[in-house]
Automatic annotation (TrEMBL):
Pfam families assigned to the protein according to its UniProt record, in alphabetical order: CDP-OH_P_transf
Protein name as annotated: CDP-diacylglycerol--glycerol-3-phosphate 3-phosphatidyltransferase
Transmembrane segments: 73-100, 121-143, 155-175
InterPro entries reported in the protein's UniProt record: CDP-alcohol_PTase-I, CDP-OH_P_trans, CDP-OH_PTrfase_TM_dom, CDP_ALCOHOL_P_TRANSF_CS, Phosphatidylglycerol_P_synth
Native source organism of the sequence: Abyssibacter profundi
Pathway stated in the Swiss-Prot or TrEMBL entry: Phospholipid metabolism; phosphatidylglycerol biosynthesis; phosphatidylglycerol from CDP-diacylglycerol: step 1/2
UniProt-annotated location(s): Membrane
Enzyme class: transferase
EC identifiers of the protein: 2.7.8.5
Record keyword Cytoplasm present: no
Amino acid sequence: MPLNLPMLLTLMRVLAIPFVVLAFYWPTPWAGPIAASLFLLAAITDWFDGWLARRWNQTSAFGAFLDPVADKLIVATSLVILLSQDASIMLSVLVAVIIGREITVSALREWMAEIGARASVAVSWVGKVKTSFQMTAIVLMLWGMPLGPIPVYELGYGLLFVAAGLTLWSMAMYLRAAWPVLSEHSDQKA
């Protein structure tokens, strides 16, 4: 596997995870903004690495595997650390919905690929919009501190509700797209 710039950016996103966690818990008033900035840089590389790989024709099977894994790891980790600071029932439900969807859709894609029907559950526009809301919400919630009169955390929390709604919608779309194949193979057991 050649280590090109798109692959390096993806790997850097994985390596950023412990730094986001350490920054978040660092005992300084700027811990949230530092963690949010690191998360934001990682989120930007998510868009940039895929764009570069396609533009420079440097796509690879490993890159196609690692890119969504890196996204899910940094999102899930960030949601868990946010939950550690605000263990409310509502945030717990939002985090469970988002992480649960990621597990469900990943398993669905893996199974569909195994039976040669992966194209049925390709990434949809709703999934991309969901990711944008989710990343923005997490950045704002990690930042946590108000910017003048702007309640940054609360704004991010509100966007996380939107992201969770889009999460459920996109999961329903994936399941609906896969349903003909799922129901056709219902007699097979895992």
